[in-house]
Every structure is written in C-alpha cells, then in structure tokens.
Amino acid sequence: MMATIFTALQGVQERIADACLRNHRESSGVVLLAVSKTFPSSDIRALYLTGQRNFGENYVQELIEKHAALSDCKALVWHFIGPLQSNKTRSVAELADWVHSIDRLKVVERLSAQRPEHLPDLNVCIQINVSGEVSKSGISPDECLELASKICQLPRIKLRGLMCIPEASRDAVHLASQFKILRNLQSQLMSHDITLDVLSMGMSSDLEIAISEGSTLVRIGTALFGSRTTKPSDTPPN
Ligand SMILES: *Cc1c(COP(=O)(O)O)cnc(C)c1O
C-alpha cells in the first residue's frame, strides 16, 4: 500500500515537471500540496519521510488530530484549505502555517487576534469564486481588492496569494479561462502595490492547465492518495 503512495507521488511529480517543461517554467516554481483529508496520519508520515513537506487538510478536527500525531515531524507545513467557520478559527490559528480559504474579513480578523505570539505570521490566500456558481465558496473577483487591502492591515497575518476551485469541466478552455481570472486579479492587486507570490490553483484532474496559467501551488488529493470513500467519522463538514 505504501508502495502505491510512493509510485503515485512520483507520478504527480512527473506530471508537474512535464507541465513546467512545456511552459518553460522551473519546476521549483510549483509547490506540491498533498491534500491528505480523510487519509490517516500514517500516509502523511510515509510521504513526509520521502521529503514531501506540504500537506493540506479540510476539516478542523482532522487537522487537530493529525497535527498531534505528527508533532515530531518538525518540518511539516500544514495548510488549511477547507471552509472555515468563525467559531472554529482558534485551532487553525494555533496549528496551521497557511490558510487558503479566506473569504470573509471576520474570519481573518479572528485568525489575526488568535495567532500565538511565538509563531511566525500566518500565511493566507483569499479564495475567489471564479465560476460564479452559488454553491461555491469564495468572494467574487470584484470584491478582492477591498478585502486584500484590509487583510494587509492585520497583524500576525501575511497575505500571500489567491486560491480558486474552478467549476468542474472537461473543457480545457473553460478551465483555463477560470484560472486566468486569478492571474488577472494578481496583476490588478499588483498595480495597487499589493504583491502576492502564490496562485493556489490546480487539482488532480487539471494541474497541467493550472500550471500553464501560472499556478505556483497545486493541491493534489486523489492522484496521490486514491479516491476518498469516507468522510471523517466524527466530523460534520464545516
Ligand atoms: C479535496 C480538495 C483538493 C484535492 O482535490 P483532488 O481532486 O482530490 O486532487 C484540492 N483543493 C481543495 C480545496 C480540496 O477540498
């Protein structure tokens, strides 16, 4: 079973390297975030021991449990990528290195207030709803500048980038056009002196398109760990 994970990791690393090559980019410019939600700490540890450092979780309870189980893995970088309710921010402020799913000022204000003094600033990305689907989290692109400006004022928070989950599609052009929205927003913010170095976009099925549109971090679950059959038993979706 571990052999499967290692083969999968190699396969994903090759897909990233190939996509970078085709787009004349350095593969060091694309971070692989292993999305380990619903999979056990032992899988994370196995990948960690091969040198994989960045792991993503969607549920606060899972983050708490896995963080405790892997506290000896000192170089492990935890990314919280799921919807975050304002009454659950404290654990994330204490345990995560990154939060990708910021879509409300209130949530990031709480993270700022609750980030422990002894830890480095919490890295955050604003989640943008690039498809306009009502079911999707994230703010609309035209709200981004205002939220970004406010986040930049908050202590103990470092605004690093933008994140999106596009509308699923087999149409590469449709996917690319959604990823382009993130890149254009990044330029728009830049013209207002807000410099972001991360575009968190691309998942198992579309990482090549995301990289061709400028992704600097791909969030990969299924292609590494296999398909998710269960939700964490004691955790409602949050
Ligand atoms: C689950 C999840 C992923 C991983 O998706 P796969 O298609 O399994 O690679 C990426 N980003 C977010 C926000 C997720 O919730």
UniProtKB/TrEMBL annotation:
- Alanine racemase N-terminal domain spans which residues? 29-228
Q: Give all N6-(pyridoxal phosphate)lysine modified positions.
A: K37
The entry lists its GO molecular-function terms as: pyridoxal phosphate binding
Which keywords label this protein?
A: Pyridoxal phosphate
The record's section on CDD domains has: PLPDE_III_Yggs_like
Q: State if Cell cycle is listed as a keyword.
A: no
What the entry lists under InterPro entries is as follows:
Ala_racemase_N, PLP-binding_barrel, PyrdxlP_homeostasis
Q: Please give the Gene3D superfamilies that the UniProt record associates with this protein.
A: Alanine racemase
Co-factor requirement: pyridoxal 5'-phosphate
Membrane-traversing stretches: none
Q: Keyword Membrane: yes or no?
A: no
Role according to the record: Pyridoxal 5'-phosphate (PLP)-binding protein, which is involved in PLP homeostasis.
Q: Which family does it belong to?
A: Belongs to the pyridoxal phosphate-binding protein YggS/PROSC family.
Protein name in the entry: Pyridoxal phosphate homeostasis protein
Instruction: Read off the lineage from the record.
Output: Bacteria, Pseudomonadati, Pseudomonadota, Betaproteobacteria, Neisseriales
